[in-house]
Amino acid sequence: MNRLAQSKSPYLRQHAENPVDWYPWGDEALARARREDKPILLSVGYSACHWCHVMAHESFEDAETAALMNANFINIKVDREERPDIDEIYQKVVLLMGQGGGWPLTVFLTPDHRPFYGGTYFPPVPSYGRPSFRQLLLALTDLWKNRRDDVEGQAEQLLEGIRELSTGERDGEGALVGPEPLATAARDLLARIDREWGGFGRQPKFPNATGLEVLMLQNRADGTGSDELLLTLEKMWRGGIYDHLRGGFARYAVDRVWLVPHFEKMLYDNALLLGLYADASLRWPEHGFLRRVVRETVAYLETDMRGPAGTFYAATDADSEGVEGKYFCWTPAQLEEVLGNRDDAAFFAAVYGVDPRGNFEHGMSILHLAQPPAQFARALGTTEEALEVRLAPLRAKLLAARYQRVPPLRDDKILTSWNGLLISGLVRGAAAAGQWGEPELQARCLALATAAARRLLDAHVGAHGEVMRVDFDGVVHTRGYLEDVAFLARACLDLHEATLDLAWQNAAAELARYALAHHAVSGGVGFHVTADDAERLIERTESQHDSAIPSGLGVMVEVLLRLDLGGVAPAGARAAAEACLERQGGAAIRQPFAFASLITAAQFAAPEAAHVTLRGPSPDAVAELARTVAAARPGMRARMAVSFEAAEGPPAALVCRNQVCSVPIHAPEALRTALLGEASR
């Protein structure tokens, strides 16, 4: 057993029994590397990563490979979810070497942390056009011992490249404010949509919720992209990437048709997709599958991913009993065994594509809707509603049986940023449920969001405003990053708009104030990933691009602009946000996929962006006006911020655009007209 057994990271603990002499990232390992003049082997991954498990089994559990590692390197394991700053820096090495990034990340460093070689997965024997891991270890050991000047030269080149990539673009080609940048970005993204199967590109396929959000915004403005958005949302729901028994989405599909996923389920994907499907359900209420995804995803998150403190766990693994997807897949015989009769098993198999030959490994089948339910119902001479009446109890039986299987490992750490994303997703789910006429679901979503946010503010935010990133087994640790501050601040703003409780708005303003004081780039034209008093690595990177989640930059700009619309922003907030939009404008227009969250944030800076102040003696007193605002939001072309102001007198709303406010509006219908105007559709 190595040092990782005492780690607070589930991912690092997975490697505690390796024969490798692993260290966590820290002073002990780095000091030993300097003292012994040995290179560092840095391995970065996360607990639900399938290929991380593969490389661990093939190489890190192998005694001969471990002996090579221990003799020649100081071996450091990093959980990318705990330390995204380390991951972000060293992912750039792989990009600079002309490779695709990803995990496991394998980078070799000098004792002073400068990288001189990197890659991702390395096989145990030469394959995939790559050397074996042992060949690589021997070659780099020889390089270190006999060609140190080459190592130094490569390290300096890579360090210079990292520094160039770590600083936001400064071309200042134009701000993102106004309708044309959004329309340009949407056209670019629409051109990348697979017109047959939905989603961006061919394969593998990721949900890319931030890109879809840009398309949703443009669709609200002019109606473009409806077919592409609905196609994507339906194909994802019908595919194997969606869990048809419990709800929730896997991280991505390895194929074009969304059938075969890598089965890990990440909190951030489900947080982002929950909000996307909720908004889509209001945009296209005639498509019932959108509401179903919201209901089932909320149920999955509450049942399978919620911890005792009210916050939510990070992920579940792809593998169980050492086999990828075993927990989720079925054979016809297994269906018949659980369902108890051949007719029900055959019926379920026909609907969900369970075939004797299987569509996955070992003759197993991934559940998916081979045809749209309406089409299947017509073929049977019945209705879609009647079809669902028969299917629902069968799914329930199979889910109960699945819970008896050995489940995939769950990563039980709580991450501030990912919980912030989920709080926002739950608030959007609550708003949608309220418009559907499902008050119980609306209340449940708000209760879940509120409990999680209270826990984060109570346990993850320090006395001086600093945010901590991780809670594992009740121990809060690891200094937070810009995304932790930004996502939590936005979650608080979303809760304020949903509840009109001023405490949430005040919390968001305090978090924004902290970000401006401790994360802002000199001159106020960007934000660093780390705070000014955090551990210094070889480079202090700026937040720039979206990844699988929005960038801290994009979300923080949104927070600052929304606070400014509400008149409660810290000093300098508007100027900082506009400087970011100006500085990154050219890059965002050229690369909308990479800057989708910044593009969506920019819409809050547009002159037509609205701020609605609801005034009354209490939030309850303005409830009818608040419902009117919520009902109008899906049809509004521009973005809107909402806040509450305590005031005596009859309930009223003030609608402000471009620094001009309406007279107090008391009647709900008049408020609806003020919000929608000619945009009512």
From TrEMBL:
Residue ranges occupied by any Spermatogenesis-associated protein 20-like TRX domain in the UniProt entry: 1-161
Superkingdom: Bacteria
UniProt-recorded name of the protein: Spermatogenesis-associated protein 20-like TRX domain-containing protein
InterPro entries cross-referenced by the UniProt entry: 6-hairpin_glycosidase_sf, Ssp411, Ssp411-like_TRX, Thioredoxin-like_sf
Record CDD domains: SSP411
Species of provenance: Nannocystis exedens
One Gene Ontology term from the biological process aspect of the record: carbohydrate metabolic process
